[in-house]
């Protein structure tokens, strides 16, 4: 079976992890601060706060910019549940805004409609889904006009660009995940980026029991720290990220070319000014056919996945909170129609060809 994801672990990762093991400094250590700085530099941000995972990173970012119980926070319903849960962790209320059906990302026109209707929106968590940045020109303009805090959920978009600027460099803060299947990984892990020195200082307290100095605790904090072991893997992975992204883009190009005339599926849309890093290569297929298409792939040894089969507000947890079906029509339609094919950098050329052959043989 050709899997949809496959983490790459090489000699460099092993050597740095061994170095940490030999040093016996397993928790906070030099690799953590080194990783924070290199990842922030890579994205064009001033500060990086290494975190336990992507979810704690979003949570930390919201707390850093003062999101508190009762606040309204806008987000998309077409994402991993962690995005909206992080808003709930703060005691705030998620307000869901529909997606643009072409990009799968939050629709700036609908975002403005919501900002006009809802007074005092405190923040928005936008998601650069599948490796494609949101329309950042439009969103940054709205941020200035309506004065809300902007958090980028860039958990799927390491290295993605909008007009030559990297994902994670547009908002008040950005959150990344280094979960095992992301474009780069540390097993579990995450980071918050910001350019705001005060927020950075507060964020470092939030992830470390609210500590200030050696043994003074001035705010309610958590233990959201990343380990030195994980950071060592992260440093090795970051060195290779660009070459892996190039492979993902090359694989996606081959698919786009091979599938462009197929009537039963729609290939991913790539806006001209964006660098799509293809965390997922996601096609659309009619909801009636998706299951048989995926079964055909599986029968021929090609793995595939659905990200995500259910919009967040239709999850039982959110239904209990009072959210109703039908809120975001495009997101609900996308949830019925998307399917992702393997696009990761460890695919062999022969496997890419095989996947193309298998996809094309559907309906023949
Ligand atoms: C992976 C992911 C998260 C959560 O990251 P974890 O490291 O698994 O906690 C949040 N949002 C999106 C869009 C993700 O893909």
Entry keywords:
7-stranded mixed sheet; 15 strands; 3-stranded antiparallel sheet; binds pyridoxal-5'-phosphate; 364 residues; 15% strand
Task: Give your account of this protein's structure.
This protein is α/β, with parallel strands linked by helices. The protein has helices at 11-23, 30-43, 54-64, 81-89, 108-117, 136-146, 197-206, 228-259, 290-299, 316-320, 329-337, 349-360, and strands at residues 47-51, 72-75, 93-96, 121-127, 149-153, 161-162, 165-166, 173-177, 190-194, 211-212, 216-217, 265-266, 274-275, 281-285, 338-341. Helix 3 (54-64) crosses helix 4 (81-89). The chain is globular. It starts with 10 loop residues before the first helix and ends with a helix. The structure holds pyridoxal-5'-phosphate.
Element layout with pairings:
Layout: H1 11-23, H2 30-43, E1 47-51, H3 54-64, E2 72-75, H4 81-89, E3 93-96, H5 108-117, E4 121-127, H6 136-146, E5 149-153, E6 161-162, E7 165-166, E8 173-177, E9 190-194, H7 197-206, E10 211-212, E11 216-217, H8 228-259, E12 265-266, E13 274-275, E14 281-285, H9 290-299, H10 316-320, H11 329-337, E15 338-341, H12 349-360
Helix pairs in contact: 1-8, 2-8, 3-4, 3-7, 5-6, 8-12
Bound molecules: pyridoxal-5'-phosphate (PLP).
Pyridoxal-5'-phosphate binds at residues 53-55, 79-80, 82-83, 127, 153, 155-156, 177, 179, 190.
